[in-house]
Specification:
- It is found in: Cytoplasm.
- Pfam families: F420_oxidored (PF03807), P5CR_dimer (PF14748).
- Its EC number is 1.5.1.2.
- The protein is α/β, with parallel strands linked by helices.
- It has two domains: 183 residues, Rossmann fold (3-Layer(aba) Sandwich); 93 residues, ProC C-terminal domain-like fold.
- 50% of the residues lie in helices and 14% in strands.
- It has an eight-stranded mixed β-sheet, sandwiched between helices.
- α7 packs across α12 and α8 packs across α9.
- The longest helix is centred in the last third of the chain and has 22 residues.
- The structure holds 1,4-dihydronicotinamide adenine dinucleotide and (2S)-3,4-dihydro-2H-pyrrole-2-carboxylic acid (A1CAB).
Length: 286
Amino acid sequence: MGTDAGHMHTVASAAVIGAGTMGCAILSGMLAATEGPFAAVGPADVVAADPGQAHRDAVAERFGVRCVACAADIDRAVDVVFLCVKPQVMDEALRQVNENPLLVGERMPLFVTVAAGLKTPTYEAALPAGARVVRAMPNTPLSVGAGATGLCAGACATADDVAVACGLFSAVGCAVVVEEDAMDAVCAVSGSGPAYVDAFIEALRDAGASLGLRAEVAETLALQTVLGAAKLLQETGQAPEEARRAVCSPGGTTLAGLDALFRTGFQASVQAAVAAADQRSKELSA
Ligand SMILES: NC(=O)C1=CN([C@@H]2O[C@H](COP(=O)(O)OP(=O)(O)OC[C@H]3O[C@@H](n4cnc5c(N)ncnc54)[C@H](O)[C@@H]3O)[C@@H](O)[C@H]2O)C=CC1
Ligand SMILES: O=C(O)[C@@H]1CCC=N1
């Protein structure tokens, strides 16, 4: 990595191992970045590795980056390697990284992993001693530039390494740094969170349909309401409690609705969902 005048490390080249949903979101973020550590990275500086020919063709076409079948085939040294394969095949992907002297030689890249459940010591044990690892837990809205990512540093990662990883995830949403023991909670809140919000939109749509709205109309209204409520909070900086009160007229419809929502256990349901996901994340990483 080079150092610019502001002493912030800049990235000149990167590899993405696993060009699926997350890998493509990361490719898109790094190639679109006009500021931050990835600002200078262009398609010619990036290589993607994926065993799926269809994936490779799609990625080459969409991003104009070079594609190879696996990490062992990467034919250049890079500054950062993003590990974006499923946890179940991470062993194999790391074995292929280890087969490549350009990736595990004297000048090792920074490794940034997005796999759920696998802890940084797992990577540090699989890679040569001294490997710098940053673990990230993004979510699916990353692919539309609106991700929420929690990150933590492995034992050998430097503050600059964390800043580099944050720079990427901030380009496609927001990024927060946490201790590794908080990663299960991050997974439970924001990693899995888009699915809870989807379930809420489904429920709001179905409730509207049960009142006689056409399902498409109810879905359009439910979706835009969730998007709009989140945008209002983000743009005004209001607390959700405050924004919620602004919707409520005394003796009006919203208070009647909220009363029923809370009486029937909405907060307890969300609490239970996050606790169950946190527990499952702990089991998966045990
Ligand atoms: N989908 C989600 O909501 C989230 C996923 N994650 C993590 O992101 C990682 C990737 O997930 P997705 O992108 O959703 O999966 P995906 O299935 O869309 O992409 C994985 C890609 O890895 C490729 N692959 C398999 N073996 C490989 C190998 N040895 N070398 C190179 N590529 C290989 C597959 O062909 C596939 O294209 C997972 O570890 C998951 O835990 C993290 C946060 C949220
Ligand atoms: O469901 C899962 O296990 C992964 C982690 C966060 C989102 N998807």
